[in-house]
Amino acid sequence: MAPTKYADRTIPKISLHDFSNRIDEITQQLVHAAETDGFFGLINHGISLEEIETMFSTSESFFSLPDSTKSTVPFTHLNAGWEKNAQIRPSTGQPDQKESYQMQFGANMSGLWLPESTLPGFKSASLEFMNKAQSVSEKLMICFARGLGFDDEYFIRAHDVSRPESQTVLRLLHYFEVDKSVPVPEGYYRAGAHVDWDFITLLFQRSGQSGLEICPGREVSTGFGIGDVWTKVEPAPGEIVCNIGDLLMSWSDDRFKSTFHRVKTPTDAEKDYFGPRYSMAFFNQPCTDAVIQGPGKKYEAVTGKQFTQAAMNRNFAALKAKKEALEGVKMEASVVAS
Ligand SMILES: O=C(O)CCC(=O)C(=O)O
Ligand SMILES: [Fe+2]
Question: Domain range spanning residue 43?
Fold first, then answer.
C-alpha cells in the first residue's frame, strides 16, 4: 500500500469568549470553518481543563473494571453501551484497536448504567459532563441556525436532551497500549478512517496522547473513499476539536462539510505515541422525531430515526462490500455505529 501523504494544515481556532456580545463574529468564523475545512478547534468554551481531566479520570475508572463487569452493559442497536474490539470500519474491514462505552441521556440507556455500588458517582459525574458538553453544543447550534437562516432555537429543539427521544451520545474511548516490538499488521488502525453521522462532534483529547489525523474539506461524504492527504492534529490542553457530521452536511444541503478522520496505530518508534490513549467524543444526534431538511430542500425530509437508520445501513452495506472484496466470501457481520 502506498504510504500516506501528509500536509501541515492549520485548523481554525475559534474562541467562544464573551459569546452573547460576539455572536455575529463567532457565527461568521464557524460558518467559514464549516464551509471549508469541516474541522475547527474550540477555545474559551466554558469547560475548564480541570473538568475535562476529572472526566478522563472517571473514564479510566470505568475502563479499569474487569471485562466481565463491563460486559453486563453491552453495546446495543440503540447506539449505547460497551464494546471491545468490535467496531469494524468499512474503510479498513478490521476492528478498531480499542474499547468504548457510549452513554445517552434518555430512554436508550435503560439497563446500560452500571449499578451505583460498582462505580460510585460514575453516572452523576458523566451526566454532569454531558450537560456541559450539551451547553457548548447549543452555542454552536444557534450560530449554525443563523448561518442557514433558521430561527435561533431550531437545532436546539431538534437535539433536546431532556426528551426521551434524545439520541445524543457521549462516547468514552480507550485505545490499548501498543507493543513497539511487534509489527502492526497492514490496515490496522486505532480507529479506521470514517466520517461521523451526527450533527457535530466535540472531541476531547489528552495532552501527549496523539494519533488523530484528519482529511479536511471533502466535497461529499456519502462514500467511504479515503482522501489522500492527511493532517495530524496534536492534542492541545483544554481545546475541543470539532468536526461537522453527515447530519449537518445534509441539513445544510451539503454547504457544510462532513470530513474524514482516523486514529493512527503507532508505528514510528521515534515520533508516534505507543501508550494507552483516552479520548471522549460527544455526538450531537437528533431526537428520533426531529424532521431533517435543509433550507434549499436538496434532500427529502426524513426523521431523526430514519436518518440514523440509513446511516447504520450504509455503514453495514459498505462494510459487507469491503469484507467481500478482502476475503472473496460472503459474511455475516454486525456493525457498531457512529
Ligand atoms: O478518539 C479519537 O480521537 C477519535 C474518535 C472518533 O473519531 C469517533 O469515535 O468517531
Ligand atoms: Fe469520528
Answer: 5-337
In terms of Cβ atoms closer than 10 Å to its own Cβ (0-12, 13-18, 19+), residue 13 is: middle
Instruction: Say what the ipTM of the complex is.
Output: 0.99
Tally the domains of the chain: 1
| Residue 135 φ then ψ, to 5° | -65, -40
Ligand 1, atom 8: closest residue by C-alpha: 281
**What pTM did the predictor assign?**
0.93
Kind and range of the H or E element at 322?
helix 304-327
Most informative mutation of 207, 212, 244, 264 for ligand 1 (most atoms within 8 A of CB): 212
Closest CA to ligand 1's atom 1: 279
The H or E element that residue 135 is part of is helix 122-148
Q: Are 92 and 188 in contact (CB under 8 A)?
A: yes
User: Consecutive 10-residue runs of the chain (338 residues): their mean pLDDT?
Assistant: 78 97 98 93 98 98 98 92 87 85 95 98 98 98 98 98 97 95 83 92 96 77 57 94 95 93 90 95 97 97 94 78 69 48
Distance CA 30, CA 186 (A): 37
The angle subtended at Cα 276 by Cα 55 and Cα 61, nearest 5°, is 35
Q: What is the CATH number of the domain that holds 253?
A: 2.60.120.330
| Cα of 203 from ligand 1 centre, angstroms | 7
